[in-house]
Amino acid sequence: MSRDALVVGISTYQYPKLNKLEAPAKDAEDIAQCLESSLLPFQVKRLPEIVDKENNRLKVGKKTEVSLTQLKQELFKLFKPKGSVITDTGLFYFSGHGLYDQLTEEGYLATSDANPDQGNWGFPLHTLRKLLQDSPVRQQIIWLDCCHSGSLIVLNEANPGKDPDHSRCFIAASRDIEVAYQLVSGSHGVLTDALLEGLDPNRVSGEWIDTLSLSAFVSQYLQKVHPTYPQKPLFINDGQVINLIRTQEKQESESKSDPPPPKTTVGLENIAEIPVWVGRDALIQELKAKLLAPETAPKVLAIIGQGGIGKTSLGVKLLESLGVQLQPPNLTETCVYEKVLYFKVYPGTSFDDVAEFLLRGLDMETVEPLKTPEEKIRNVLEGLTKQRGVVVLDNLEDILHPGSATNPGKALSGEWGQLLNRFVYGNHCSTIMLTSREFPVDLADPRARTGNPDPKLVELLTLVGVSDEAGVEILRLRGSADSEADQQWIAERVKGNTFLLAQLAAIGLESPGYLRQHPELVAEEAEPILQAQLMRQSEAARDLLRQMCVLRTGIDIPGLTFLRLYTDDKEKDDRFGTAVKLEKPGKFTKAELKETAEIVRHLVNSSLVQSRYDKERCEWFYDLHRLIVEYLQTAYQAELPQLMERVYKFYCTGKTVENPKTLEDLRPLLEAQYFAFQLGNYDEASSLLMGKIEKYLEPWGYWSLLKNLCEQILPYITDDTNKRICLQSIGIIYRETGNWDKAEKYFGKSLDSAREHNNKSGIAASLRLLGDIARYRGKWDEAEKHFRQSLEIETELDDRAGMASSWILLGYIAESRGKWDEAEKLYQQYLEVMTELDDRAGIASSRASLGYIEKCRGNWDKAEKLYQQCLDLRTELGDRAGMAWSWGQLGDIARYRGNWDKAEELYRKALNLRTELGDRPGMASSWGVLGDIARNRGKWDEAEKLYRQSLDLRTELGDRAGMAETWASLGENELGKGNLDTAEQYLTEALADMENLKMTWHIAETNFDLAKLWRQRGNEEIAQKHYEKSHQLYEKLGAMKDLERIERDWRETGFLI
């Protein structure tokens, strides 16, 4: 991985009004040496660059000038180089004067030849921003320490903003037109001193210092020195975290730090044995050298080739050459990797399957399950960064479109494609090894015209057969008794296909000369030899292979015994019917198990069955090579339904799953549901999904898998109740992730289905869900209509639980309109029913709602008590979304009391969990309140950024109430900055929307903001009208704390009428 840095320190200036500086040259040199000291060093270009004759090295010159042309050339060379060689990471550091043109309101990095009197201000920051936006360099780091020189600089002009294709770290000494300082000693600029301390590898010996940890350190440092150096730095980190500095861990004599974590392996026990290896040792050494190259190692090794060519064997032997021991799985002392993971892909392997494996294997499992693919991918990359490891994904073609498709090699699911792309372009220090028949096109940059991956990031190997000499050796080692001439002839005919060589050797072992008499078997195709191989097996062995060809995962000896002996004739053997009925594994005699084991042993020796040992379950599992599966499924195509039926019956014996913790624990249920669906037993498939599987997948956070299964079965469900539940489940997943249009679509279909079957309970439930979507969008009249229709039906049915659900939703509408007494009454009704039913989740919701009413009235102690009770219950129940909401409300209480640090802590806690859950409406809300904290602290830019994030998401969601609230917040922010015209525009537009939506409390607050605005303009008449309107509404609401606040503020800023 290439890392280049341009480090600039300009101390000498020609312009008389720009003083010569002491710090920049030393600043830049110290930064340069720091970047060069890492285990993965930066290639540093110094500017100005001179030779330090005393130490025989380059250094930054203090008296040497830097022209505008020089700086421009070096910046473009770094971030927009000519030719195809582009660095992975580009870092630009600048220390020197900054200039600000008051006329054009533009900022500049002053070069030595800068002369504002002659129109030369230096390098424009807006040009730097454009350069970064257009740059092909994916990881960009910018540190600007511009010292105060009598002119000021707007460093934020250089910020290129967000871009999904780039990761950026932007740190500037000051923001807007503020001053940046040097230390009193003159040794360093304040920001540079903070950077150097933050980059000191002795702080975290042996660990990476990355952009986020550095930003956090610098922020804390500057807060400590703020009384002496009151500058406000700018921090922006977008995209993936970028590693900066790392050193070797200290020896024990130097440090008492904890020992490094032990090297571990995961999944190596699933690798089938490789009895013979010949012919590719030179290729192994070539690949090993590339993977271990200190600066040019690829992130991904993709081994592509036809079936049976030996891709998996090559990958496994490459692991061994890197110091990986397979039996028992272990990493030797010579292995440079700290963790090795192996995962075999099968048809139907979902993104959630591989994500769970990677998160568990990388020790990135969280206390609460991750919900969204983005969260899972981010945690996977973090795990790949914490420790240097190797991840092997074998048989990747099973999740790719085949070569015959219109988009060959494209991942079947977007989540899989996103994961593969991030393996290449995400930030991590590990190696990903892939084997596949098809090239995974998601490894390429979608912007690339050629469609090929970056050769610096992806090592693409198209594997061909072994040499003829190696082929002969494989035949010999596999036990072939054919003559040497025949072996040479066989090797030439199959062109080095190792799978075919193994099959042909098995025939040559038992029947020397047979292949010469049947040359049609010796070809590049697998079909003839496999047909011959099968004919040489016993009838029992052929029958067992036939049963195994429809399996998606490996199976143990008891399972194979079930498949071998299964009969649906109860009079002949009722064990199978009983096991299926009881959903418990069948019981077999030792003789039956021994006979199965003997058949399997012979098939393994004949190279027809693969074996692997599972150390966690202490059991051998068996499966078939992909080529054999394809051949058998073609040969027995007419029998596939009967074969699937038998396998389905086997998995039915495992449907009683006790206390499952992982997807693997749930595998029997998932396989039973899969085969039921494939057999057209849709009622059973939907019952398994909606009755058993859903209750695990939803709380575990496998929303993508659950949604895919529901959408797959939906067209085939005939049972009205299951169909409605399925529609609602899909809709709820879309609702919780903020896709309200799709949620509304599925809830509408649920309503249509319920009406078609005159299912009144289903009609009421669907109306409530549709009302919820309208409520989220701020369409309260429409929402109320749905809720009242639902309540009417539930009252007719005497469905007290349903009635209570409608009451609390109607309470939300009354609350939003400022009708707090009405809302409180409805919440109390809801609480009574929930208490009567002992519904603890409902009790928690009622306390949350009652707490909100008390908060609005200014009864903060009562509100806090209710919120805490709610949080305790939701924590006990594992209701993570509810926990996040409760933290947010407790944060409000802390903010109203003036405890902004505590409020921010709670808000960020809520935001982190909401982000993890993919709760987009909640994320928008959290950004809004965090913006309030920043505004209260006078951090106007930070507040605006947070408000804009909130507004963008709320606009995307169609959240009208949230949009109006955010526009008002932006107006308050502009009011604080003194931009009265902009503030008036935002507040007036927000007020109009609030009045349309009848947002009484917000209308009162916005009127008070407008009153303050007009008072600042000196128009007391208009100001007083807005104040009186605000006062009347707060009085009507009974919001006593708000009344006290606006009366106090109005009195302090003028006079109270």
UniProtKB/TrEMBL annotation:
Swiss-Prot/TrEMBL TPR repeat ranges: 764-797, 804-837, 884-917, 924-957
A biological process term (GO) from this entry: proteolysis
One GO term describing the cellular component: cell cortex
Annotated ranges, domain NACHT: 299-399
Record key words, sorted: Cytoplasm, Repeat, TPR repeat
Compartments reported by the entry: Cytoplasm
InterPro entries from the UniProt entry: AAA_22, Caspase-like_dom_sf, GPSM, NACHT_NTPase, P-loop_NTPase, Pept_C14_caspase, TPR-like_helical_dom_sf, TPR_rpt
Keyword Cytoplasm tagged: yes
The UniProt record lists the keyword Cytoplasm: yes
GO molecular function annotations of the record: ATP hydrolysis activity; cysteine-type endopeptidase activity; G-protein alpha-subunit binding; GDP-dissociation inhibitor activity
Protein name (database record): Tetratricopeptide repeat protein
